[in-house]
Recover the amino acids of this structure.
């Protein structure tokens, strides 16, 4: 049997190329994701972003009626800036003052208006060492 | 007693280091007694780890809060079962569990294969010992479970959402999976180091890999079910990095399980298989790292811990060493057989591998992208749900179709004519199903409809295979149809067990498609007596009650459920307020329809002081197929894992023909 | 406290004994060589695997023909080449065992 370049090899190579094409297709259609920022980095940013921070009280309002209002500040505690957040939609049960949360939305006129029901709370740290200021 | 635990771990570390050094020396120099000594050290390390584990377990059961770990993860009021689960609930304990399982598997793998693969074992011992040394080192020097303190009056308690039966089983199963992947890895590296690149490493580890893979699969399903019923946001998978951490090694292991069949059958893909097992193991380590180090923002994220950098370094060493070894031995891994046709079973398995890996790498990319973009651009960019959904469809749907095609294509080369004949009936079934579903309204989601149609195709092929196989066995002389069916499965456990697993995956696909592509949601704020509708359900909010349990105050709203003119009983949804832990948890109300597999899912999102409640309600079609798929998956895995005496006899005979010493 | 230390010491002693056992049992053995496969044996093992693979392929072809996965045409087409593979594997094995006689006294 003549040993030419096997068509099978070619097909496999084309399949790999096909898979890569799928990746390229996605990035060209959907572009990248959303930047994940800390409250101190939010100033002046436009467009959809993901905000990750520590919940600062007081928490006022109703997420299902007019919106829940609270403030978020940096998790690392280095910066003192806090951002005003207006949140509507489902509130995870772990939400409370002092919890780390992540929420999508955009900054509008000084208030971070969250996308409805986009809040995710971080489970209390089971794997981290207990810190003295109990930031979990 | 903590001193005993600490000492036991120290001895474990010593034994692991000895097994590593002595084992490597014995293998390299060919010293029999030293090799045996290293093997004994590996087995002994299981005993010492077990002692350490017993100390921790004892402390937990005694509520000994002088152990910092016990105080941090339990409380007096915690029920015993959950107190036990606190063993793996925290960082240090979970590392100890890992080491326990690792040393147990190492001892077992080495002992069980002593008979017929002794020359392989000599190299497996030091590789296992290397991994064991790492974990023992972490436990001794970086994250010890035996730190002590002045005992407080009561412990901090366990996070309420972890006090759930699923959380008893989910982490141990995942560990069995992650650690289980160490066995094929150790054998592969051992085979490379010893240049024994025959099939034996594959055969020795096949059941281990299957077991680890099955454990990972079931562990993930349990985790998803927990998320669905306990965390209760209405979903079961959020593409969270910690969830992906278990999915990625599972996908790589799935690819490995398939491509192994090509090597056994045609002797091809030796390099590929070794690379796959290295990838699966590295992903298991990476997954452990992700879950623990707080590197990636996720809902499971834990603040930066000390073990993160160690893990990363270990993974880097493992990958570099393994890849270097592969490069070095590549000339010996070449096989004479080539792929003959792009339309053959070998090719189908290759496409399967390609798609599985592509999905795995897409998920990996999504997980590390925030880290990479932060390192490169100074800004962490997060890829959302839509990213993962896109690739799940792009790669998952063709994979679904392949599940039906692969088993029925001939090896080496399949003619298009034979394909047309074989697939005539399943294609017909699939098209019919597609048309019927279109009429039923499934056209509202194209990917959903495609998933259903492909699923019908695959199910048809599986039914066809079982039917034809049973008929063939009957023709061969089986007396009854059930007898024929039984003998068919017992003589071809891997094939038909595999078909059952495929059926489980198809059920999973149908359940996922139904509950994500065709679900509906409604929200309303109801006062007592008010009602809301969703689909053809009518829910009436009747009453609100409060009761006390052992460690929480439980608030429940009761709703009447009706569909059309039928009374479907009541549903309860509400919240639990845990006293010691100072946390509130959502307790969702679920009504599962036996006939359709559909769920009515009620979340009492916000309970106002005046008794009015903001409800969020889902209808999730076919979602219970997902959990049922788990059972079918378990059955299929058991069938393939079942010991095959005929095969065992053949292997022993082959070994003795060559003169491999069969006595221990 | 002392109980813990005693237990720990006992544990350590047991482990040391376990590790030293092979040397204690055989302080002066005839051969300390690790039983290894030499090149002849390795080749023989490869041939055995080749033979088993060829026979398994034949068996699978029969099975799949019986269940209808493989058509009569394809069956006839493949049978010849698979039979040839099996025959050559068996021949290679026979040649190997003819050439190499296992040394006496090997276990």
């Amino acid at each position: 049997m003549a040993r030419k370049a096997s068509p099978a090899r070619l097909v496999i190579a084309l399949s790999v190329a096909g898979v890569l094409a799928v990746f390229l297709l996605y990035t060209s259609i959907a572009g990248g994701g959303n930047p994940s920022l800390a409250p101190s980095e939010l100033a002046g940013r436009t467009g959809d972003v993901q905000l990750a921070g520590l919940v600062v009280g007081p928490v006022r309002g109703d997420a299902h009626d007019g919106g829940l209002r609270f403030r978020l500040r940096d998790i690392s505690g280095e910066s003192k800036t806090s951002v005003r957040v207006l949140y509507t939609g489902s509130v995870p049960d772990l939400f409370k003052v002092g919890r780390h949360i992540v929420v999508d939305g955009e900054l509008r006129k000084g208030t971070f208006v969250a996308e409805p029901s986009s809040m995710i709370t971080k489970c209390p740290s089971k794997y981290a060492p207990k810190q003295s200021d109990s930031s979990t | 007693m903590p001193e005993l635990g600490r000492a036991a771990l120290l001895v474990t570390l010593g034994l692991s280091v000895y097994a590593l050094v002595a084992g490597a020396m014995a293998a390299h120099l060919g010293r029999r007694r030293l090799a045996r000594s290293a093997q004994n050290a590996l087995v002994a390390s299981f005993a010492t780890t077990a002692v350490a584990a017993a100390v921790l377990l004892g402390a937990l059961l005694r509520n000994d809060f002088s152990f910092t770990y016990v105080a941090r993860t339990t409380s007096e009021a915690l029920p015993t079962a959950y107190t036990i689960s606190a063993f793996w609930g925290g960082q240090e304990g979970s590392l100890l569990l890992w080491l326990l399982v690792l040393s147990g598997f190492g001892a077992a793998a080495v002992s069980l294969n002593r008979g017929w693969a002794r020359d392989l074992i000599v190299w497996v011992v030091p590789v296992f010992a290397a991994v064991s040394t790492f974990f023992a080192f972490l436990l001794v020097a970086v994250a010890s479970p035996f730190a002590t303190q002045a005992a407080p009056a009561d412990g901090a308690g366990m996070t309420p959402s972890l006090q759930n039966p699923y959380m008893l089983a989910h982490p141990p199963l995942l560990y069995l999976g992650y650690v289980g992947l160490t066995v094929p890895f150790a054998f592969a590296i051992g085979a490379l180091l010893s240049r024994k690149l025959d099939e034996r490493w594959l055969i020795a580890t096949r059941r281990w890999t299957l077991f680890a893979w099955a454990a990972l699969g079931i562990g993930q399903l349990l985790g998803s079910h927990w998320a669905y019923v306990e965390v209760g946001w209405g979903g079961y998978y959020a593409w969270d990095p910690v969830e992906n951490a278990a999915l990625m090694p599972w996908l790589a292991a799935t690819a490995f399980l398939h491509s192994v069949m090509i090597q056994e059958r045609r002797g091809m893909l030796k390099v590929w298989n070794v690379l796959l097992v290295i990838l699966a193991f590295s992903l298991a380590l990476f997954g452990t790292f992700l879950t623990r180090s707080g590197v990636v923002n996720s809902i499971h994220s834990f603040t930066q811990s000390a073990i993160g950098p160690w893990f990363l370094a270990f993974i880097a060493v493992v990958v570099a060493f393994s890849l270097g070894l592969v490069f070095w031995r590549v000339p010996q891994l070449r096989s004479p057989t080539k792929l003959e046709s792009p339309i053959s079973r070998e090719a189908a398995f290759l496409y399967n591998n390609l798609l599985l890996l592509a999905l795995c790498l897409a998920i990996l990319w999504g997980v590390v992208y925030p880290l990479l973009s932060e390192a490169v651009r100074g800004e962490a960019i997060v890829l959302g749900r839509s990213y993962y959904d896109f690739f799940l469809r792009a790669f998952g749907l063709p994979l679904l179709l392949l599940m039906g095609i692969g088993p029925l294509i001939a090896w080496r080369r399949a003619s298009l004519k034979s394909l047309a004949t074989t697939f005539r009936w399943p294609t017909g079934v699939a098209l019919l199903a597609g048309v019927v579903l279109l009429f039923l309204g499934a056209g509202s989601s194209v990917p959903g409809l495609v998933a259903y149609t492909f699923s019908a195709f695959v199910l048809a092929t599986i039914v066809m295979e079982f039917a034809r196989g049973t008929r063939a066995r009957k023709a061969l002389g089986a007396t009854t149809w059930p007898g024929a069916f039984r003998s068919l499965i017992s003589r071809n456990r891997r094939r038909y067990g595999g078909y059952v697993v495929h059926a489980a995956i198809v059920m999973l696909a149908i359940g996922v498609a139904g509950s994500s592509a065709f679900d509906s949601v409604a929200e309303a704020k109801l006062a007592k007596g008010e009602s809301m509708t969703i689909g053809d359900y009518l829910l009436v909010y009747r009453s609100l009650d409060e009761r006390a349990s052992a460690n929480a105050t439980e608030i429940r709203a009761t709703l009447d459920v009706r569909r059309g003119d039928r009374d479907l009983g009541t549903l309860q949804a509400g919240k639990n307020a845990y006293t010691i832990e100072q946390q509130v948890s959502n307790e969702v109300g679920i009504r599962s329809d036996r006939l359709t597999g559909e769920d009515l899912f009620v979340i009492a999102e916000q309970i106002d002081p005046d008794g009015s409640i903001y409800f969020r309600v889902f209808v999730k079609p076919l979602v219970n197929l997902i959990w049922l798929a788990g059972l079918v998956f378990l059955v299929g895995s058991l069938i393939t894992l079942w010991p095959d005496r005929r095969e065992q006899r053949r292997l022993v005979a082959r070994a003795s023909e060559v003169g491999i010493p069969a006595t221990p | 406290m002392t109980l813990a230390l005693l237990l720990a010491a006992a544990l350590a002693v047991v482990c040391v004994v376990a590790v030293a056992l092979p040397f204690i049992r055989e302080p002066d053995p005839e051969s300390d060589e690790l039983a290894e496969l030499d090149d002849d044996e390795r080749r023989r093992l490869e041939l055995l695997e080749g033979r088993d693979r060829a026979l398994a392929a034949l068996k699978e072809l029969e099975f799949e023909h019986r269940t209808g996965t493989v058509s009569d045409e394809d069956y006839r087409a493949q049978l010849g080449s698979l039979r040839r593979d099996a025959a050559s594997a068996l021949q290679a094995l026979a040649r190997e065992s003819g050439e190499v006689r296992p040394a006496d006294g090997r276990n």
User: Anything to note?
Assistant: Chain C touches chain B through 51 residues (CB under 8 Å).
